[in-house]
Amino acid sequence: MDLTGDELAALPGVRGQIERITDDLAAGRNCVWLLPDHLVVAGYAGELHRAVLARSPEHVQVPEPGTVRAEPVPAQPSPHPLVTADVPLLDGFDDGFDIGWDLPGPRREQPPARAGGGPSELMTRLAKGLSVAPERAVDELTAPGAHWRPVIGIRAWLEPDVRHGAGGERGHDVARLVRALDAAVKDVGLLPEQRPRVMVTGRLRDLPPQLPDELELELATTSVHWWWGTVGRLDSATLLDGLRGTDRHRTAPGGTLLRTRVLRALRAEVVGELCGADLALAAELFDCWDGSDRSLDECLRASLAARAPERGADCPPVRSGAALQHKPPSALREAWARGVVQAWEGRPRLHPAVWHADGGEGRPDQLSVLVGQAQARVLMPWLEEARRRLAELALSHANRPARELVELYVRNRLKDHTTRPERTFLAAEASELERACLRGHVSLPTDERLLLAAVVRARNTLSHRQVLRDDHLDDLCAKLTAADLRWGRDT
Q: Is residue 371 packed enough to be buried (19+ CB in 10 Å), middle (13-18) or exposed (0-12)?
């Protein structure tokens, strides 16, 4: 199941980042949006880039490379054609002999011509979109009396792979354009609302390595945005909720609305927790997995094979505070670009392709941890509601005074437990209620005792980082459903 670019751009976290970029552009700042490689490969980058430009009333998209040919600039003739670089010339030399020749003036060193001659192809394409001469493009954009201040869109991943410098850096022409426009704006002294702005979208490798950090120092004129912590649990839940029309969740005989609600919530939460920021993987897993624990490993493995074949397992050590920043630390940027690591809910999260292929036997420990966390997030509110109702019933079926029950079984007692023991007993743990039943001090009906045992087992399992297996989960849902029907008749 494929996630469309419009669906991605409409998710809360992505929409929020697009709005922040739009606000920066409206405030007169250039923006650079850095995306992981897989968003470009999957075609999402272009749609995200267009979503930003569409929010700016005045914008111009730089045409793709190859659509405009740069016109060669004719070479200027030398004022002294007889003087060549091979003939030494001693400027101002006078040997005292006058033979009637006029010596040429001092020779001036000519700056080396740019490779290919004339403006860069990027500048030529921009000038074509602006209907001006390439050498006049920056001046026209920053002229004090100009009435059109567009946002200039550049898709850096489409720029030709022309390397510059000893390190073979890509994106030299993009960096030169941003800096030239920034310098011209400062030179003219344009107010923020009068400035033309550049919107560059691309991958980390599409720009010179030091450019993002250098541009971040220009706080008044440039903002750098990273796809780092952009999506979170709300985005995953929103996406999966929209996919329920094709839900193929397992349904057991005698299913009810409550049972179906719990199992569907568990399925979506497990998928979101396992896949993290890889929403395309989440959509794929949600489509192929029926929600049962026994089929989870196989479905996750198949989804990873289809969606994450190129992600390597190598990743530098990740410290917990790295995800609190607005950008990935320098040591993690290559791994971030490959999609190996991403910020998820304020913490760094490795892609499941990393830990699912750790080479160990059996189920990876990280898989059990994440599934257990997802189950706890969904089930704990239901378990707490059942525990509270069972505690209320236990008071009416108690064989001892409430004060004595509190003294015997409740460890965490409220300050007023001596004067209001019932209030403290209602806060008793499920295991404490079960112990009171086993010792005969509380005589709950059979169905309620069975439900209490299921609640205790589920809470113990989840608190020990374990996973509720299918049979235990089905039994718990069945008992919760039956209790809900019983208690509904009593009200």
A: buried
Compute the C-alpha angle 105/110/113, nearest 5°: 155
> Which 8-state DSSP code applies to residue 89?
-
pLDDT value at residue 367: 93
Structure tokens at 80: 């002294």
Q: Scan for tokens 């530098």, then name that residue.
A: 316
For the stretch 101-134, pLDDT in tens is 444 444 333 333 344 446 788 999 999 888 889 8
Q: Give the Cα separation of 228 and 210 in Å (integer).
A: 18
Q: What is the pTM of this model?
A: 0.82
CA distance 220 to 16: 21
Whose tokens are 């003739």? That residue is 77
CB 350 within 8 Å of CB 315: yes
Q: What is the chain's Cα-based Rg?
A: 34
Half-sphere exposure of 477 (CA within 13 A, CB side): 25
- The letter for the amino acid at 153 is G
Structure tokens at 58: 């005045």
Distance CA 174, CA 364 (A): 44
Supply 220's token pair.
């008044």
pLDDT of 86 > 50? The answer is no
Residues 150-197 pLDDT 10s: 999 999 999 987 766 545 578 999 999 999 999 999 899 888 888 999
pLDDT digits (tens, 9 = 90+) for 433-467: 999 999 999 999 999 999 999 999 999 999 988 99
**DSSP code per residue over 133-175:** -GGGHHHHHH-TT-----EEEEEGGGS----BTTTTBS-HHHH
Contact of 425 with 406, CB cutoff 8 Å: yes
Rounded to whole angstroms, how far apart are CA atoms 20 and 320? 25
Handedness of CA 426, 428, 431, 435 (dihedral sign): negative
* Dihedral pair phi/psi, residue 282, rounded to 5°: -60, -45
Q: How many residues does the chain have?
A: 491
Residue listed under structure tokens 């069975």: 450
Dist CA 44 CA 30 (whole Å): 22
DSSP-assigned states of every residue in 445-477: -HHHHHHHHHHHHHHHHHHTT----HHHHHHHH
List of residues 6+ apart from 136 with CB closer than 8 A: 127
In the numeric block, the tokens 């010596």 are attached to: 103
Structure tokens at 120: 């860069």
